[in-house]
Design brief:
By secondary structure, this protein is mainly alpha-helical. Among the domains are: 10-178, Rossmann fold (3-Layer(aba) Sandwich); 184-230, no CATH class; 245-339; 343-414, no CATH class; 432-498. Helix content is 62%, strand content 5%. The strands form 4 sheets. The protein has a 5-stranded parallel beta sheet, with helices on both faces. Strands 6-7 form a two-stranded antiparallel ribbon. The protein has a two-stranded antiparallel sheet with strand order 8-9. Strand 8 and strand 9 (707-708) form a beta hairpin. The chain is globular. The N and C termini lie far apart (74 Å). 55% of the residues are buried.
């Protein structure tokens, strides 16, 4: 299989070049193994092109000659047979005997290998030699054995041996490179190499999945697609074409198997459940036995054990099915349907019947729809079932409704590319405005999570208007997501329109889930315009409703809305509980489309609760889920949170690594961009670059205009004020603090009010009465059960202020507490800053204990108060000891 452009094979090409570049100083060998179509032959060709200064010997292992001992060796060495005259006579005679087909006695095999090694050395006297054997495992085993012995003895010779074999083949003692499936980026590059223009993004993503990362499969797919399929307007193939190069290769392997083996292999390929009992019953019904698979197992196509049949290579199942004639496939589907339980295996049975049916079948379409409802067998399976139901429908309206449901199920299962393809097909065939509106809501949600948040807002607003009369619940949810989109993009001024539309949709008798969503949108809109008197009750009502959800209304989406409301109104504990329930429910139902968002909300709640390590772990999980499901906007938010959490802990390396991962994918003004800016500002602050920190934080939003990340800037305001306190002019910090105060005073959060007091202390005259009063107010307000890190920061800042006001004795009390808390929390850089302040205050202290860090929950730090309300001590239950 010739693949002219190598994609995703940089490591293998580099290994080939390294061998050939150093061949004059001593040779070596390399085994490249992978599934058919993975590019093994292309790499052999690459080596031939690169070895311009080498002599080349090349051969291929042929299954037709697998029973002829040393047939491959004869073909490889025949061009240099005459060079054997340089060998000692005994070795020359043995080599000639083998090449003439007379065989080699078992006890002379090592002598034969030495003779071949001598022949290669003689050939390489004039210039280095490259010897390649493609598909060495498919030819005679004797050739493989000899080449393996030779390949292990090339260190002193200017000879390179390059072998390729199937994915399961190994040769002891040789450097081996496995040709792994291409990643999605390289798959898309392979596809676009075949075309004059790039395919639609969801089409390329789905073809990459269908092709299984196999280069030849992708080439074959690209060669057979119609223009409508490239645009996503027609269904895409479910497997590479049977008459492509890869299909022909598999067919050649299948043709060498007995008829019963091929029939059993087809049944195994079509029964994707891999249920051994089903396959045994199907074999019995067909008058066969499972043992008929033995030749296929010997050929490396499958593995058979008590658990069932496993296909050894990712594409083998699809290619076995594609290679079978249509009539045989349909007969096999009917056979499998006949042995399945109509009740316990309802969906699988209906799918097999659908695949055995030609033309419309409304009754079977309805059965598929009922069996797939709710995604009980998995969202991806349910989506595929509804696609088949749409194809079997005899009415366009039914087909459109089923395609829309299939797209929803694909999205719920974490397949945005498949969902977008189905929506594109729907747009090309459906003329019903209501269905188009429903599709717009789904498309907007996918755009929001995956790539185009600004465009998502417009899509969602338009779709919500279309469906409002028929389905207010969906319309309200669409408005909530539109609001999320404008906030993500930094266009909060557009939230006014979202809130106005939500108010127009609300009714007094709304069901709890609809009322909850309406309260969230109304509350956030009021918050963004500074109307906290209206925002607070609406948001708190949403939190209460979230705790009361039950039955069909209890969904991850509704719980996430309630959690978001809780964060805006600063009820962190309730927000965390709601987000935790959303995470659990999304996992339970397999709703991957909502899991990353629910984890994002949980991480923010954990940040406010002071559980930084737990928040980082939550964000890491959210990042994994988001990347696995193509939700790149969500992934960037998690990266931004990880950057902030690392910066807050003064972990510069980790923070900068996460910011680099965001790279240039986030647009200026977006939430990930703002989180990255916040993280960089905290790092600036830790290193004493106060002007740079203040400038970064002030640029996160333009207060009064609704542009930029207002909510992120509110979260970061304590850091902005801390940086600005070192500057002579601080209007941005003063304005930001005024906005923070209005919000904090409207909440019941002691932490927010403590942070507000700390900010006022920092902006007051150093060492003055107001500064001390505000610092002590902050320390009194800091909650004892959470927020230990922020309390320690307040202690540090108060101690700094007292020391610089020439009150070192008073300062040391606060600095000691800050240093001890930072040490116990494992934030070494902050502990070092507290230590430096203590030394400046005249205290003789050693470096902080860097080994005292702990995961959240292992070490409990708490404060006890005396009659004055001042903190009196720190206790740590860590490794069994207590220090008070």
């Amino acid at each position: 299989m010739q693949i002219t452009v190598l994609r995703g094979r940089d490591d293998q090409c580099a290994a080939v070049r390294s061998l050939l570049d150093g061949v004059t100083d001593g040779g070596g060998a390399l085994l490249l193994h992978g599934e058919p179509g993975s590019g093994r032959t292309a790499l052999i060709s690459y080596a031939h092109r690169y070895a311009k200064d080498c002599a080349v010997l090349a051969a291929t292992g042929l299954p037709e000659e697998a029973m002829l001992p040393y047939a491959g060796l004869q073909r490889l060495l025949d061009p240099v047979r005459d060079r054997a005259t340089a060998l000692p006579e005994e070795r020359r005679r043995l080599l000639y005997r083998v090449m003439d087909g007379e065989g080699c006695p078992p006890e002379r095999r090592l002598a034969l290998s030495v003779a071949v090694l001598g022949l290669l050395a003689a050939t390489a006297r004039e210039r280095p030699l490259l010897a390649t054997m493609d598909d060495v495992d498919r030819g005679d085993p004797q050739t493989t054995q000899v080449l393996a012995v030779v390949a292990r003895r090339l260190r002193q010779l200017p000879v390179v041996v390059l072998l390729t074999a199937d994915a399961t083949a190994t040769v002891d003692g040789l450097v081996t490179h496995r040709l792994a499936p291409l990643n999605e980026r390289d798959c898309i590059a392979v596809l676009t190499d075949r075309l004059s223009e790039r395919p639609a993004a969801p089409v390329a993503a789905m073809l990459a999945e269908v092709g299984g990362g196999n280069p030849q499969a992708l080439v074959d797919l690209a060669d057979v697609l119609t223009p409508a399929q490239w645009r996503g307007e027609e269904p895409l193939p479910v497997a590479p074409p049977a008459d492509g190069a890869l299909g022909r290769s598999y067919r050649a392997r299948l043709d060498r198997l007995p008829p019963d083996t091929r029939r059993m292999l087809l049944l195994a390929a079509l029964d994707e459940s891999d249920d051994a009992a089903t396959l045994v019953r199907a074999a019995d019904a067909a008058g066969m036995v499972i043992e008929a698979l033995a030749p296929a197992e010997a050929a490396g196509l499958v593995r058979v054990d008590s658990a069932g049949v496993t296909f050894a290579q990712p594409l083998a199942r699809a290619m076995v099915a594609a290679a079978a004639p249509l009539a045989q496939r349909r007969a096999a589907h009917r056979l499998l349907a006949g042995v399945l339980d109509p009740l316990g295996q309802r969906l699988r049975r209906a799918m097999h019947l659908a695949d055995a049916t030609a033309g419309a079948d409304p009754a079977l379409a309805a059965e598929l729809e009922r069996a797939a409802a709710g995604g009980r067998n998995g969202w991806a399976v349910a989506s595929a079932a509804l696609c088949r139901a749409a194809a079997l429908s005899d009415r366009p309206d039914d087909a459109a409704a089923r395609l829309l449901a299939a797209a929803r199920y694909a999205w719920a299962g974490g397949q945005p590319g498949q969902a977008r393809l189905l929506l594109d097909r729907l747009r090309a065939t459906c003329a019903d405005p209501l269905v188009e509106g429903e599709a717009g809501l789904l498309r907007g949600e996918i755009d929001l999570r995956c790539d185009d948040a600004p465009g998502a807002a417009a899509t969602l607003l338009s779709a919500a208007r279309t469906v409002a009369a028929a389905d207010r619940a969906r319309a309200m949810q669409g408005l909530a997501r539109a609001g999320e989109a404008v906030c993500f993009a930094g266009d909060q001024y557009r939230y006014t329109e979202v809130g106005r539309r939500a108010d127009a949709l609300r009714r007094r008798d709304d069901p709890p889930a609809v009322e909850l969503t309406g309260c969230l949108v109304t509350g956030v809109a009021a918050t963004l315009r500074g109307d906290h008197e209206r925002a607070g009750p609406a948001l708190r009502r949403a939190v209460v409703l979230g705790g009361r959800l039950a039955g069909p209304e209890l969904t991850p989406t509704a719980l996430a809305c309630a959690a978001a409301a809780g964060l805006v109104v600063a009820v962190d504990g309730a927000a965390h509980r709601l987000a935790e329930r959303a995470v659990g429910l999304a996992r339970e139902h397999g709703e991957l489309s909502m899991l990353s968002r629910a984890l994002e909300l949980r991480a923010v709640a954990e940040y406010w609760l002071g559980r930084h390590e737990t928040a980082a772990e939550t964000s890491r999980e959210g990042l994994r889920v988001a990347r696995a499901t193509g939700q790149f906007n969500c992934a960037d938010v998690h990266l931004g949170m990880l950057a902030v959490l690392a910066a807050v802990r003064a972990d510069r390396e980790s923070s900068l690594r996460r910011i680099r991962e965001i790279g240039t994918t986030s647009t200026p003004g977006s939430r990930p961009h703002a989180l990255a800016g916040w993280a960089l500002a905290v790092l600036d602050l830790v290193d004493g670059r106060h002007a740079e920190a203040a400038t970064r934080l002030a640029s996160l939003a333009r207060l009064g205009t609704g542009r930029g990340q207002v909510l992120v800037q509110v979260m970061a305001t304590p850091y902005l004020v801390e940086a600005a306190a070192h500057l002579p002019h601080r209007p941005a910090a003063t304005a930001a603090l005024a906005a923070f105060d209005r919000w904090a005073s409207s909440t019941a959060s002691p932490l927010r009010r403590a942070l507000s007091a700390r900010c006022h202390a920092l902006l007051a005259t150093r060492g003055g009465v107001e500064s001390e009063r505000e610092f002590r107010t902050a320390l009194r307000l800091h909650p004892t059960e959470a927020g230990v890190f922020e309390r320690a920061r307040t202690e540090l800042l108060f101690g700094q202020d007292l020391r610089r006001s020439r009150r070192p004795r008073d300062a040391r009390e606060h600095l000691h507490r800050a240093r001890e808390a930072f040490t116990l929390l494992g934030v070494g850089r902050w502990a070092e800053l507290a230590t430096a302040e203590l030394r400046a205050a005249g205290e003789s202290v050693g470096p902080p204990d860097r080994a005292a860090g702990h995961p959240d929950g292992l070490c409990a730090v708490y404060y006890t108060s005396g009659s004055t309300g001042h903190p009196k001590g720190v206790a740590c239950t860590h490794r069994g000891w207590t220090n008070r």
